[in-house]
Amino acid sequence: MSQAVSTYEGWFVYHDFRKIDWNKWKSIHPSKREQMMQELLDTIREWSSVENNRKGSFGQYAVLGHKADLLFVHLRPTIDELNEVKLQFDKLDFADVTSTPYSFTSVVELSSYTIPPGTDPFSDPAFRERLEPILPKTQYVCFYPMNKRRLGDDNWYMLSVEERRKMMKSHGMIGRSYAGRVRQIITGAIGFDDWEWGVSLFSDDPLTFKKLVTEMRFDEVSARFGEFGPFYVGCRLTSDGLNALLSDNIK
Ligand code: VOV
Q1: What is the pTM of this model?
Q2: 226 lines ligand 1 (CB under 6 A)
Q3: CB-side exposure of 199: number of CA atoms within 13 Å?
Q4: Does ligand 1 lie within 6 Å of residue 66's CB atom?
Q5: Does the Cβ of 187 fall within 6 Å of ligand 1?
Q6: Which residues bind Fe-coproporphyrin III (predicted)?
Q7: In which element (H, E) is residue 141 found?
Q8: For residue 178, is it within any domain?
Q9: Is 2 contained in some domain?
């Protein structure tokens, strides 16, 4: 049996993808719609306020393509709080005009591959900030789930820790060459969801997602072991932006 990697966990994360039933939304009387919007915006204000005292983070995005219309990302210290925000949304009248085509439950994770043995990462404030990250306020987000392959000779979980560390070092070097252009939050989902990790990328230039993901595809750890789920790309929404998205579409 090969040695399991030790991991460090931070805030729990809930990616909540929502699709809007536009016909239903548009058929609602304008004054009722206004009331539903206000209720939604009040809830979002409450969710966003967790960042003020570092009790979590929140982001909302307009999602391109047919897979979803909105993405709400919640980071909280406990999974119970994530459950609460999920139920809080589901109890809003606005929830009745949405469905959930996809969701992802995970926890911010750092693995020990690149941490020198003997160091106490928790004594490092920068490390803590990576485990309990405030979502970057970039204009664009990219999210996808992924696994490490377990197939014949390409079984990540049968490799020695040294082989895995070597590949993760190369992976990290590629990632670092994108410093300042993209930020990543890697969340572990083993035991929580259908994929092993969630990859959330943040950038002000959507092309950077394509360049980075392409470059990583040619790197051994992704080329041999990466298995990927659906990709989602979105534009960050302010409350005004969400208001406009829901209002401007009413014809
Ligand atoms: C944007 C840049 C970037 C940077 C700097 C970066 C660096 C690093 C480092 C240093 C480490 C190891 C220590 C740790 O921090 O855990 C990781 C870890 C990880 N990564 Fe990464 N990654 C990036 C980006 C980045 C991307 C774009 C992807 C998706 C891969 C692709 O092909 O689409 C990814 C995946 C992961 C995963 C799934 C893990 C956990 C693997 C495990 O087996 O545990 N990652 N990553």
Answers
A1: 0.96
A2: yes
A3: 22
A4: no
A5: no
A6: 130, 144-148, 171, 184, 222
A7: strand 140-148
A8: yes
A9: no
